[in-house]
Amino acid sequence: MPQSCAAWGCTNRRTIENRSRGITFHRFPKNKELRRQWEVALRREGFSTSESSVLCNEHFKPEDFDRTGPIERIRDGAKPSIFSFPPHLQRPVATRKAEAFEES
Ligand SMILES: [Zn+2]
């Protein structure tokens, strides 16, 4: 069974086909604190990562990658930030306008 991306709504699997499309998979950080930050970023309730959990590179910004080596790596300290969450997980955006409205 190929590994698949742990992100919400992402169906990318670790296949040769996807590899040829430029989709790479990255394990969660070993560093506990950083790993926790990734888990929080995923916003998956009750989800905890295992040794084999991976995220695909579609959830990272271009600047999160270190492409200086032969293998694409996530920079130390980088966090996944690009997700397509289902509506119930999308936080209402607190805008300045809304705050001003409450004050008046
Ligand atoms: Zn993914």
Strand residue percentage: 5-15%
| Rg measurement, Å | 16 Å
Principal-axis shape equals: globular
Count of structural domains: 1
**Roughly what percent helix?**
10-25%
Unreliably modeled segments: none
Mean pLDDT: 85
Largest sheet: 2 strands, antiparallel
Number of strands: 4
The H-and-E topology, N to C, reads as: HEHEEEH
Look at the helices and sheets and give the structural class: alpha+beta
Bound molecules: zinc ion
Our measurement of the CA-to-CA distance between the termini, rounded to an integer number of angstroms, reads 57 Å
Oligomer: single chain
Characterize the structure shown.
By secondary structure, this protein is α+β, with helices and mostly antiparallel strands. The chain contains three helices and four strands, in the order αβαβββα. It has one domain. A two-stranded antiparallel ribbon has the order 1-2. A two-stranded antiparallel sheet has the order 3-4.
SSE topology:
Layout: H1 16-20, E1 25-27, H2 32-42, E2 54-56, E3 65-66, E4 73-74, H3 96-103
Antiparallel strand pairs: 1-2, 3-4
This protein binds zinc ion (ZN).
Summarize the structure.
By secondary structure, the chain is of the alpha+beta class. Helices cover about 25% and strands about 10% of the residues.
Write out key terms for the chains shown.
104 residues; alpha+beta; two-stranded antiparallel ribbon
